[in-house]
Write a structure and sequence with these properties.
4-stranded antiparallel β-sheet, 14 helices, alpha+beta, 5-stranded antiparallel β-sheet, single chain, 11 strands
Amino acid sequence: MKSAVETLNPTRVRLTVEVPFEELKASLDAAYKKINQQVTVKGFRSGKIPARVIDQRFGRGAVLEEAVNDALPKFYTEAVNEADLNPLGQPEVDITELKDGELLAFTAEVDVRPTLEIPDYSGIEVTVDPVEVTDEDVEKSVEQLRERFATTSPVERAAAEGDIVTVDLEAKVDGEVLEDGVASDVDYTIGSGQLLDGIDEAVKGLEAGASATFTSQLKGGSAEGKDAEIKVDVKSVKARELPELDDDFAQLASEFDTLDELKADSRKRLERMKKFDQATQAQEKVLDELIKLVEVPMPEKLLEDEVNTRKHNLEHHQLGQIGMDLDKYLEMQGKSAEEFEAELKEQAEKGIKTQFILDEIVNKEKVSVGQDELTEHLVRRAQSSGMSPDQFAQAVVEQGQVPMLVGEVARGKALATVVEAATVKDTNGEVVDLEDEDETAEAGETVEAADETTEA
């Protein structure tokens, strides 16, 4: 077999391959055997039809077509390996010559990974938010915990802000009660904004047993988007009572004996959260700066496929699961179809560039992935997918996705290497030390957020 490579542009090549006919023998034998099993000829047992009879009855061309279809992937792969190419996606193959008994010639055009020059990235500087936990932050955190331990009790008075009312609802459009417009025993916290626009004003001042009507635009159901006349019957009013902020509350809500200890722990927890957010922000900003440094030719076919994949996943998986179509989603987002397409293309480009650049750094820095790192990453991915680690691991192996996970970990480590070399300061001018953070794990999450491309 002879092959040659022609570079069409930085991300696409054309392979020209010539195969001596004798190298098709195995595929020809397989073709005759396959046809033998599929047809019957009077006078011959199944599977025992001579090749000359198959040629006479069904045509030599049918055999050659079957043999070539069988052999092409093998010869294409050999040519790719011989040229040391990194193909992206499936090739466009064109058979240019097929001479029975002499020669098979074909061309294959395919996108390839571009060759990248990674410049010195040690000069990257980014600014992130400082880790500052105020007394107000702590008080808010404790107050949220206090809300979780609130109790309710019936009251014989008019409903007020913050009360919980149990109501029956009936919605009419054009004077007709909607089939899906009736609900009973609905608990609603006045002021939460989690039900219908206008209900707060309608129920405030009502006691149990009282009713009111109001007009509201329906947010879902058969008459979604239409204005409806809503009747609300208040069945009960309950007041929320918060526990006193004292040592008894600390003992009730935590493992601490005093309120001061609870607040101190809340401060530490908030500091850890803000350090995590700071590290994530540093990862994202360093990645953005790294992408600016490297010129990445964009394979148009890969980009087109990636945009289509992201759009399909959004429409048929994310939105489909909540019963929403793309038009409604764009309306809620306040975006036109053109703005959505442009945003999708920008995200896809960033994902592709991220993968190419970090893979190049993996090779340049000789980044390796240990079993413990892979296991840790697998457990984290399992948690985000809602599966147990064992279930997720089994699915990964069955779908042949182990190399994909290894690539994700390696790219995370590559980004951590870049972050370590960069200068990260907070808005106060202080240099941020990320060495105590789990850089690899966080870098992996940052890479996954940017790089949702299909592995090539």
